[in-house]
Amino acid sequence: MKLEAYNSFCASLPHAAHVVQWGGAHVWKVGGKVFAIAGWNGSDVLAVTFKCSPLSFDLLKEQKGLRPAPYLASRGMSWIQRTSAASMDDRALKDYLRESHRLASLNLPKKTQRELGLNSA
Questions:
Q1: Cβ atoms within 10 A of the Cβ of 61, count?
Q2: What is the CATH number of the domain that holds 100?
Q3: Structural domain boundaries, residue 10
Q4: 114: which DSSP letter?
Q5: Tens digits of per-residue pLDDT, 44-91?
Q6: Which residues contact 30 (CB under 8 A, 6 or more apart)?
């Protein structure tokens, strides 16, 4: 996935906000909660980091082209970094980014979720 496609996809998610921080990383947030981070990992390949469920984390962390996200995973958080499309194509990455957005929004106060129209049953 190229940076432009990553930013375009994340921008299409409800109430997503973009900021460039942490040394040039493209960070996407929902209600102030981070759900995706993209940057370069010592090469010209875009590394995309996303939040996932503990089960997904356990399944993905050993796959080729995926790894526990630096800094985040070492602090007990279920975040994966895709460093290549070896085990996860762009379509699957978009599914995980969509789920990461949902998981991050669940950490917002219920009132904020209602105001933004997120996670309605």
A1: 17
A2: 3.90.1150.30
A3: 3-116
A4: H
A5: 779 999 999 999 999 999 999 999 998 888 888 899 999 998 889 999
A6: 13, 14, 15, 16, 17, 101, 104, 105, 108, 116, 118
How large is the C-alpha radius of gyration of the chain?
A: 14
Residue 51 β-bridge partners: 79
Q: Is 81 in a helix, a strand, or coil? A: strand
How far is 115 from 43, CA to CA, in rounded Å? 41
Tokens of 33: 């909660």
Strand order of the sheet with strand 66-68?
16-21, 25-30, 33-40, 46-51, 79-82, 66-68
Quick one: how far is CA 114 from the chain centroid? Answer: 22
User: Would you say residue 121 lies in a domain?
Assistant: no
- The tally of domains found in the chain comes to 1
40 with 46: CB under 8 angstroms?
yes
